[in-house]
Amino acid sequence: MATYEVFLKKDGRDEYRHAGALDAANDELAMVMAREAYIRRAEGSRVWVVNREHVLEGGDDFISPNADKPHRHHDGAEVAARRKRTREAGES
Amino acid sequence: MSRSWNDMDEFEEFLDGGGIVEVDDDMPREYREAVFAFIEMHANSEYMGGLTERDWIPKTPGLRHKMSVLAKTQDEIGHGHLLYMVAADMGIKTRTEMLEDLMAGKSRFHNVFHYKAETWGDQVAIAFLVDAAALASQQAVFKNCSYGPYRRILKRIISEEGFHMRLGEDRMRRIAEGTIIQKEIFQGALDRWFWPALQLFGPDSKPDDKLLRWHIKSERNEVLRDKWVQKFVPMMHSYGFTVPAPDLAFDDETGKWDVGPIDWEPLKKTLAQGGPDSARRIGEARDNWERTAWVRNALNGVLQ
Fold this sequence. Notes:
The structure holds two protein chains of two kinds. Chain A is elongated. By secondary structure, chain A is of the alpha+beta class. Chain A has three helices and three strands, in the order ββαβαα. In chain A, a hairpin with a 7-residue loop joins strand 1 and strand 2. Chain A has helices at 27-38, 60-63, 77-91; strands spanning 2-9, 17-24, 46-51. Chain B is mainly alpha-helical. Chain B has twelve helices and two strands. Chain B has helices at residues 8-16, 29-55, 63-88, 95-103, 120-144, 148-176, 180-199, 210-213, 221-238, 265-271, 278-291, 293-301, and strands at residues 249-251, 256-258. The chains are: A alpha+beta, B mainly alpha. At the A-B interface, strand 2 and helix 1 of A face helix 3, helix 6 and helix 12 of B.
């Protein structure tokens, strides 16, 4: 018996979203159970079913270094201020 | 573990600020146990409710309704499984342990599934009164639930319960438009199910209710119960049925219905597995669990 994670997507622009988990004896039964438990009323038009052991997971400790990299952002504030000054000068 | 808190004060501050707890967070043990117990009872109730519905598949009048009952049974058992997965991930009991405890009469499920459904009228009354009560309490949890996995799974459960409730009212409408005998049968069912359904909300919440403090419940029991009364008393009247509350009164000042004093003894009995139909229901669930062991074994055997 293995635990699987179920992801659903409707056709269109939406991304795949996690719907929940299930226990199944093998991949084929996991697909059938995903349909019967999570897609009972066309909640999605596509499904990914992934053995939980195959999911690579990174937590906050792993991700957090990238939360502190201001050089990867630019708020454009000074440029905006400069543009505003130019605009106002042109209008007067 | 991705997040941890130094003490309960810090954790509660996180919850009060709208924080959502995830499965791999190092949540306080008391929170983990309380949330687990709540989800386990919800899962058990879906499962036992599904078995109640199943009892009526062969006896449901008309093919269209029979198919709806089949769908509803599958929904309820499915909800049980979704919830057992969420509960099992909390690491207190496995899914199998939870099911075994349920079959052994060691764990709780909602009071309403400790009563016998005598007639098809009872089944309609359950769908109408009980499903609405269960849906209202689930919606109140969904509104502000601090445990992320439970909140997300509730969303899909609630959407399916909406179908059950509409089905219940439609069945009631058909009976209300039916023969005198049908109406009598249904009135009898309402008389049996009104109080158990009302008691599903439980007695008034204690001032220090942990589930309220930790943002699992968003509404006090008595508030939810009152909302249900204000909705269902007039609805029963509008379909031409009476409410089995001798002290029922309408307060002109508040514009509200008051059902009078509530006897909580029946609820206490069901919580101790001593309801009118508890023994048979648990026994049948267990027999069925044992009888279908070959299906589980066959599915597990696929691996070999």
